[in-house]
C-alpha cells in the first residue's frame, strides 16, 4: 500500500495536516507562498496528500459512480475513501468539509489548533456515499452556507484559520489575538502611511502615542463595526459593562422601525371556528407595547371595532401617559405611547402607508398554518415596512390570512402542542425577526 510522507522541515514536530483529495495539485500554490510557506519551512506545519484514486480497486482507478435512486451527477464511492482513511494514525482527528457540517468559527479553530494531526476529507461531485460517516469516526465542518465544487477550497480556509493559531505561526502571537472574531467582534480599521491621502487623514488619536486612548478608540471602532455590519454576533461577543454602555449610546437607524405589530380582536375565530369579536386584555396591551418599545418597532396597533373596548384602551393608555401612572412608572408611559387604537386592520395598513409612504407587507400569524420563514420576513425588513398581524381568541379569521402577503410559520411548527399566549408569541416572533439587529 502507498505510504504518504509529510512535507515540510521538521515534519514530525509541528501540526500535521493530512488532506484526502483527488486533486492534491489544488494546494500547490497556496501552500507555497506567504505565511503558510514560511510556517512549513520552520516546521510549524506539515502536510501530506492522500489521493483516494490510489486506493481504488477498479482498473481505471475510479472513485465515483452513479447515485442510487437516479439523479444528476456522480457520488464518491465509499471503498476508496475508507481505504485512504485506514492509512491515518488513530490519533488523527478526521474532518469532512461539508455544507451540512458544524460552522467553522474562531472557537472551533482554537479547539482544532490543540490537535497534533488533522485529516481533512475533501468531497467532490454530488457528495460522498453516506455510509462513510457510519464506518469512520469523523466530524462534518462547513465554511459557509454556499455551494463549492469540492471541499478543497474549504480545507484551505480551515488550514489557515487553524494554522495561524499555532504558536510562532504569525511571528507575533498577538497578531492572531487582536484580529476579527478573536473576542467575538469585528476588527477595528487600520491605517498606514501616508498620513493624508486625497483629503482623508489618519485619525489623530493613532498618532498621539497615548496607548490607553488608542486602545479605547480601537475598541469603540470594533464595537461600531460589529453593530453596523454583523449585529447578529453581538450576543456571543465578550462584552464589558463599558462596552454595553457605549453600544447603548450609539446613534443609529434601527431596522426595527420597519416592523409594525397589529393585535386583532375582530375578525377572529373561537374554538368552534365561528367568527367572533374578543375583548381587550390589560396584559396584552401592556406587554406587547413593552416589546414594541424594547425593540424599537414602528408602531403597535390595537384593532377592535367595539367602541367601549376602544374607550377602555384609551383609558388604560391615558392612565400611564397622563394620570397617576405617569408619576408611578414613567417607563410604562413611554411604551404605551406607541399604541394606536383603530377599528379594523385596514386602518392600521392605511396609517403605516401614510406615515412611511409605502404600503406595508402584511404578514399573518397562525399556530396551524404558514410557510413564510423568519429569515424571509427579516429580509423584507431591509427595504420595506412590514405589519405583523397577531390574532386573539383561537386565531385570525381565514379572510385576513388570505389577504395577507404571507403567513409566518408557527413558532413550534414541528410540535403538536403549539398554544402560546399572544403576548408570549409576540415576544418570540419579534426577537426572531430582529434579535440584536434591532
Characterise the protein shown here.
By secondary structure, the protein is an alpha/beta fold. It has three domains: about 15-165, Alpha/beta knot; about 195-250, Orthogonal Bundle (Trp Operon Repressor, Chain A); about 255-435, SPOUT methyltransferase, trefoil knot domain (Alpha/beta knot, 3-Layer(aba) Sandwich), CATH 3.40.1280.10. About 35% of the residues lie in helices and about 15% in strands. The protein has helices at about 35-40, 80-85, 105-110, 130-135, 150-165, 175, 210-230, 240-250, 280-295, 305-320, 325-330, 330-335, 345-355, 375-380, 400-405, 420-435, and strands at about 15-20, 45-50, 65, 75, 95-105, 115-120, 140, 195, 200, 260-265, 270, 275, 300-305, 340, 360-365, 385-390, 405-410. Strands 14-13-10-16-15-17 form a six-stranded parallel β-sheet, sandwiched between helices. Helix 9 crosses helix 12 and helix 10 (about 305-320) packs across helix 12 (about 330-335). The longest helix is centred in the middle third of the chain and has 19 residues, at about 210-230.
